[in-house]
Amino acid sequence: MQKPSVPISARLFVNSTFSFFKLSAHELAAVFTFSREGITSGMFSSILNHVASSNEQSIKAHEGLQELSFYLKRHIELDGNEHFPKAMQMLTNLAGNDDQKWFEIEHVAKKSLNERIKFLSGIYRQLKSCSYSLAS
After folding, report:
1. DSSP 79
2. Going by C-beta distance under 8 Å and a sequence separation of 6 or more, which residues neighbour residue 28?
3. Alpha carbons within 13 A on the beta-carbon side of 79
4. What Cα–Cα distance (Å) separates residue 31 from each residue in 22, 36, 78, 114?
5. I need a surface site. Which of 20, 39, 86, 128 has the fewest CB within 10 A?
């Protein structure tokens, strides 16, 4: 992960992800639930909506974009309708009525979401610096 070809935002995100592995089960479940399952559906929906509204013909013209569109739609369906509710149930099972565990869940969820935001912001900056166009 220290190779120069790996963007710094990706390196930092991977390192922060590995740092979560030493947490307790309820904290690790919170990271998974809130910084992955809880955001994927909305994030992928926004990407699909933006790409579709900006250039519908390009999606139809590029087979790779059609496959990406299918992949994103499938994740939206699974994460929003199945994975996130099951992840929330897992958290409930792990924390129960323990207020301290719920406090820890909230704390680590915020931390993991901030790490995800930094990572996605890095991707955004990198994409903005590219001159790639869907029309090409």
Report:
1. I
2. 20, 21
3. 20
4. 12, 7, 18, 11
5. 128
User: Under 8 Å CB-to-CB from 93, ≥6 apart: which residues?
Assistant: none
Exposed e or buried b per residue across 74-107, where buried means at least 16 C-beta atoms within 10 angstroms of its C-beta: ebbeebbeebbeebeebbeebbeeeeebbebbee
Residue found under tokens 């992928």 = 44
* Model confidence pTM above 0.85: no
Helix residue ranges, H only, the chain: 8-20, 25-32, 38-61, 63-78, 84-95, 99-129
- 122 in Cβ contact with 9 (< 8 Å): yes
* Averaged pLDDT, 102-128: 93
Are 115 and 16 within 8 A, CB to CB?
yes
